[in-house]
Amino acid sequence: MTITRFGRRAAVAVVALVGTLGLAACGSDNNATPSSSASSSTTSSATAGGITCASGTLTLSGSTAQANAMSAWGKAYQTACPGATVNYGGGGSGAGVTQFTAGSVDFAGSDFALTADQKTAADARCGTGNTAVDLPMVAGPVAIGYNLPGVTGLQLSASTLAKIFSGKITKWDDAAIKAENTGLTLPSIGIQSFHRSDGSGTTYNFVNYLANDAKTDWTYGVNKNWPAPGGQGAKGSSAVAQGVKSTAGGIGYFELSYATQSSIPTAKVGNGQGAFVDATGPNTVAFLSKATVVGTNGDLALSFDYGNTDATAYPAALVTYEIVCAKGNKSAQLPLIKSFLTYTSSAAGQGILATNGYVSLPASILAQVSAAVATLS
Amino acid sequence: MQPGAISGSKDANKGRWLDVGFRRLSVGSAVLVLIILVAIALFLLQQALPAIHKDTANFLTEQQWRPDDTPAVFGIAALLYGTLVTAFLAMLMALPVAVGVALWLTQYGPRALARPLGYVVDLLAAVPSVVFGLWGLIYLVPKMIPLSAWLSTYFGWIPIFKSDAIFGKSIFTASVVLAIMVLPVIAAVTREVFLQVPRENQEAALALGSTRWEMIRLAVLPYGRSGLISAAVLGFGRALGETIAVALVLSANYTVSAHLLTPGGNTIAANIANTFGEAGSLGRGALIASGLVLFVITLAVNFGARAIVARRREFTAAT
Amino acid sequence: MTLTALDPDPLHLASKGRLPRWASPAIALACAVLLLLVFAITPADGRADYLVTLAVVFLVVQFAISYAVEGGRKARDRLAAAAAVTGLFLALLPLVAILGFTIVKGMKRFDVTFLTHSMRNVADSDPGGGAYHAIIGTLEQVGIASLFSVPLGLLVSIYLVEYGGGRRFARLVSTFVDVMTGLPSIIAGLFVLSFWGLVLHQGFSGFAGSLALTVIMLPVVVRTTEEMLRLVPPALREAAFALGVRKWRTVLSVVLPTALAGITTGVMLAVARVVGETAPVLLTVFGTSSINTNPFSGPQESLPLFVFSEAGLPNNTAVDRAWSGALTLIILVLLLTTAARLLTRRSAPRGR
């Protein structure tokens, strides 16, 4: 008897639940904003003509460093092509490559070009005789943010940064920092350096800069996992930025957008020519324009020139790749992959990145990327 | 006991058939659970063993985590330490409070208040850990800085409270978040257990002139002991395995430090969540190996709890 | 129905006196005022510090007074009662703070747009957008997971309690279930990712998320329901057997209804646990910003995943969405819990 009573109530509850669901089924994918801001309206008018639409669902995954770019591109592309859906899962480059190899995503975003081992596995996914290639797509500066009450316009050389981030300099009024900032009054407070606790292309590119421009002071090698002792780890650039912002004496590295959006001042960074340079788009492009393609067989992996002779070159730069099958893409997905990548490598696609703290790839590299996208099959 | 034997009706055969069917169904479910777990265990071992094999450092004592370097160097010393210390501290804070809550809700509180509050506890047990993590990161971490500084200034002579740098993200903070998180879980189960204590026992104790506290000690606690231990193990297991909340409030590093307020610390689960996305194939194996260790710890805790419960039962049976 | 303590000493044979009824509140008030003075003249400050100190001082003072007037037994009784109340406050304060914080932060974006729109075509820095796609995803994933794990888990615990009876196999199963309880949730996700994705070659889907959630939910259901079934007095079963009722009927119509309230609490705890699980769905459902109502095909979003990913973004617009998502998650749990409560209200044969 108890059971029948229970059963009746259960039925009522189920009906109620289904009813709620049914009521809620008026959910909408349509997020068209009636009055969009000036920047995004120019964006859509600029891209409207540039996109040749394809329909379907793209499933992409990988680097968190390019997640903001993918989010902006996905929005612009879906607005122009209502029949398409772009899903980018920012699980990390490692996850992206693994999922690409397993065939569960259409292409992957990665902060590094494929290693030899990864390439063998990735080639196998594309089918016998086919290869997977690295296409540089998203570039930007890695900013050094700091939190020193009353201090702006900090300048730090690669060697000083190396000492700060490896715990050899522990006070803000250390002689080495004073020497590079003669006009500033530095407080005598401890340095709290923040780094990424998760593996990251941001770490890799920042450390790569230190290893190249401060060879004697940075002895920890180049690694996507933070290699030096000392400091505090935080997961994701947002947590690093949050740590710096909330800690007096804090310093950390992250993509420029995190500094802009959290209003964290960024340091001028010493480059190969001994000049101190701001983390801006043009300075980063000046640095990247001397990068050379070292990939072969259609692969466009880049190598940076840390000896860049341009005095305005900002050397802590970041380039992330899309890893995609040159040949052997799933035929049903090919038009969409090609159409989306054509858009992202177009002048219009690269153009909208500036508002997100990225920069356009230098024209010479972009031309090679566009050519590579056109031959995808 | 053969209940069916008494019934001599014609339905006896049908009844027996249903009886056997129901029994087989429940046994089958139990077997299915075994199969799932064995599959997971095999999968874990198959992923973990090659990674441990390639480790050039001692897997148990090394205080570094570089599985994707060549040669691979990784060890779980700091992870293991952080996992056990945070969970233990959390239980130290949460268990007495949770029992107090359960006692108040079942023994002391007026019914009109105890019922809605019991409901609130159940609800709080259901608050997702990601919410605790968000709250810990945005609200608690800044609040912990003055508290940590105070503890460090006045109790710094005790090694565990000594700290050179103060930044809210410490093992202590993680323990507090875990304690707050497991508290309603333990309290909800314990409350349910205390409610099941036979009223006869309680009334008998009171009739003999016990104060209410003596009644609780004589009638409620002994009866609910095995349930209480289960609730504690449930809470401890949740504290050990909690991923997201801990990952948000720890400044991850790989150093074993007895100074609980110093920034840093890490746990096995938080490390998996933090580094899994960027881990290479060996890195994944290494993380799974650390997960396997977490598994073994939980196993040990459960066995310990079981042994205690079993001994109690024997003891009560003997007297 | 609270038990009222009988006066343990009706004839006042003990030489000790009794404190009047108003003693406890009076002592508390006196402590509060005195401590306020102490806080005013010493550098000690802070609301939380004050409350904690007050609790400790009150416990000690009341114990001392009661010990002097009423003797040790009464003093300990008062101490225990006061400690229980203190525990309640100590527990409720931070928890209510979390709820309040989430509600205040979450209300900012908790509107009709949030509940009825997805995140399609909403960039991280844009205002607007919603969690409709995530709510649908979570309901479907958790629903399917419950469909698997509740009957299965209940059957396992019935086996353990009613049939196992201390056999070696039952002990083995019980141990394994305990082990499974401690399975880090991210490993459950990893297992399903490997098994479902890499071995069976299925793509990301809501269903894969359900499988991972089932692995986490199953042992919780077994553990809690087992405990509740064990608390059903053996006399009930024996009475049923004595009336000639078959075992399966005894279990279904005597044991289960008796333990129903406890079982529901157990299931609620299990559902609540998986509703908020981020790690396993992160690896299996993939996440999307568009609505996908089909759990068997294509990436789906889930509410905790939505909260986690929006909270990780540097934009305030995204963090606001994360808080509203957290609020939605809590409300969802509240609705489920209330529904479960209503279901079991009168079916539990218990006094309280």
What can you see in these coordinates?
The complex is a heterotrimer of chains A (377), B (319) and C (352). Helix content of chain A is 39%, strand content 18%. By secondary structure, chain A is of the alpha/beta class. In chain A, helix 2 crosses helix 3 (67-80). Chain A is globular and about 60 Å long. The relative contact order of chain A is 0.17. Mean pLDDT of chain A is 83; it is low at 1-7 and 33-49. In chain B, 74% of the residues lie in helices and 1% in strands. Chain B has 11 helices and 2 strands. Chain B has helices spanning 3-6, 12-54, 77-108, 111-125, 129-155, 171-195, 199-207, 212-241, 244-249, 268-275, 281-318; strands at 65-66, 73-74. Mean pLDDT of chain B is 81; it is low at 1-8. With 352 residues, chain C is mainly alpha-helical. Mean pLDDT of chain C is 81; it is low at 346-352.
List the helices and strands and how they pair.
The complex is a heterotrimer of chains A (377), B (319) and C (352).
Chain A: H1 2-24, H2 38-48, E1 56-62, H3 67-80, E2 84-89, H4 93-102, E3 107-110, H5 116-125, E4 132-147, E5 155-156, H6 158-165, H7 175-180, E6 192-196, H8 201-213, E7 232-234, H9 236-246, E8 250-255, H10 256-261, E9 268-270, E10 276-277, H11 281-288, E11 292-293, E12 302-303, E13 317-325, H12 334-344, H13 347-351, H14 363-374
Parallel strand pairs in A: 1-2, 1-3, 5-9, 6-7, 6-8
Antiparallel strand pairs in A: 3-13, 4-8, 4-13, 9-10, 11-12
Helix pairs in contact in A: 2-3, 4-5, 6-8
Chain B: H1 3-6, H2 12-54, E1 65-66, E2 73-74, H3 77-108, H4 111-125, H5 129-155, H6 171-195, H7 199-207, H8 212-241, H9 244-249, H10 268-275, H11 281-318
Antiparallel strand pairs in B: 1-2
Helix pairs in contact in B: 2-11, 3-4, 3-6, 3-8, 4-6, 5-6, 6-8, 7-8, 8-11, 10-11
Chain C: H1 23-41, H2 47-70, H3 72-107, H4 112-116, H5 132-164, H6 168-181, H7 185-199, H8 206-230, H9 234-242, H10 247-275, H11 279-284, H12 303-311, H13 316-344
